[in-house]
Amino acid sequence: MTMKRLKQIFTGTLPLFLLLWAGMMGILWGLSGQKLKGEVQLAVQSACQNAESYYQSVWSGESTDARKPAILAGWLEHELYPYDGVIQFRFYTADGQELARSQLANSRASLPGTGVYDWHLWLDPVLSFEEQLELAQQLQKDPELSRFFGTVGNLVSEEETDERWCDVVGVADEERQVLYPKTITYVYADQEITLVDTDSSLFDGKELTTMRFEGVSLYSALVGSSASPQELLDQWQEVEQEVDLLFSGLDYLPHPFASASVSSNTTCYPLSDGTLFGYGFSYISTHRIIEELKSTALYTLLAAIAMALFTDHRQRLAIQRERDFARAAAHELKTPLAVLRAHAEALREDIAPEKREQYLDVVLSESDRMSALVGGLLELSRTEAKGAAKKEPVDLAALVREVFAPLALPLEQKHLQLQLELEEVSLSGERARLEEAVENLASNALRHADSGGTVQVSLEKLGHRARLTVYNDGPNIPSEDLSRLWEPFYRADPSRSRDSGGTGLGLAIVWKTVEAHGGRCWAENRPVGVAFVLELPI
Q1: If you ran DSSP here, which 8-state letter would residue 62 be given?
Q2: 69 and 30, same structural domain?
Q3: In which domain, by residue range, is 278 found?
């Protein structure tokens, strides 16, 4: 395909199909976005309810799952993970004092021989954002590192833990059972893996403690969704800034029953005891929608391009057919015009009277031929312009009888025998157009039937369709030409229709008429002769 052809396609059909594709994708995008928004809203609502319940149980002393003020050190809601998002919780007193906030990275650890996860590894004050990101990338690369068990089972002996354990070096708060780790090292029988190694200033001047754990459940908010750790970290930082902005610089907190919103849907919710619970979340809705729709977008885009190419191909075929039709019509008119001119010029000369009469007969014959050709062209044009057929009750059997009744004399002159086998069939169609189609089939059979032969016409009902067959015992038609007989001016034998008085348009008119009625037609060779078949819906 040349560049010129591609340019023609682009400036022709392709923009239209791309516009339709873009509109369809816009609709799908909107629907997917609405669906995602609803899912996120439900997820956040569930997260808020869980967080409030958890906060109240811990703060009231009903739960010993964590120690104040590290209320959320070992807990972070996962509700937004399926949506490539993060959620951040904060607790504030009524006067604006921050009580606790969810951590970006933390862990719960079990001492050897206990099987109880009662120690918290609090990583947020220790790790920089760069170190948080590095840790998340390690956990994403090997998810097994997030849950480390020294042995199988809950209660283990010292001997059993000698083969597999976790060493944590850091600052320990025995009262709250919180450990700020400087290093976290997983020890296996054949290797050691250091997950955390920081130079945080938090350890300056503080006594470091080494603790051994047999089980560790390490967690990072930057792991767990299809989004990359870097994307989630960017979101987390954005949320932190927005929540900070919400509560900093305010002389008062929002009314307990009010909600304040900033970008990325940062909101405040009241708790039953008057304490305000603030949360912020951010999610990559665009990213998620693209992920969900990228295969659809690709396939539909390829389909749109394919449709554009197909439409362009059909247009080119239609243009070519029109050109072929125009050339064929010009060719058909050219011959009688040339004959008319030649004989008209001859009549201007001093010729014998008997030749003059002969030339006038030729002029009249060619004039009639041109008149019939022009009439056929006009009729074909009208048939194409009419489109779908009008609906009216038509007695097809009676119509066939009426068409063949005036042909008794032409049949007798050619010594042809007419056989009619007609079932009584009625259908809904346009009588005048159906009558013309049957007349064209009848005249075609008369022209091509051998002298002394037979023309057979049958009409039968086949389910919800009527089948009309017009057969003549003339010569067979080459099989490669059967499907093209319905094209205007097409002749398997170029001289056949011209010599027999046909215009080459009759079968084309039949085809268009049957098509307008929702039917189909074809020609088939018989052992002797040719049958033309029409099928119309009843």
Answers
A1: S
A2: yes
A3: 18-288
Which residue in the block uniquely carries the two structure tokens 């009527």?
466
pLDDT of residue 40: 73
**Is the distance from CB of 12 to CB of 315 less than 8 angstroms?**
yes
Give the single-character DSSP code of 96. S
What's the burial of 125, exposed, middle or buried (CB within 10 Å: 0-12/13-18/19+)? exposed
Residues 187 and 244 in one domain: yes
Q: What CA dihedral angle connects 69, 73, 78 and 81, to 10 degrees?
A: 120
The answer to whether residue 3 sits within a structural domain is no
Report the C-alpha gap between 292 and 284 in whole angstroms: 12
Residue type, 337: L
pLDDT tens for 454-499 read: 999 999 999 899 999 999 988 898 888 888 888 877 766 554 544 4
d(CA 536, CA 79): 62
Give me the CATH number covering residue 351: 1.10.287.130
39, 169: one domain: yes
**What is the model's pTM?**
0.51
DSSP type of residue 266 = B
Residue 471 maps to a domain: yes
Which tokens go with 242? 């927005």
CA pair distance 211, 208, nearest whole angstrom: 10
Number of domains in the chain: 3
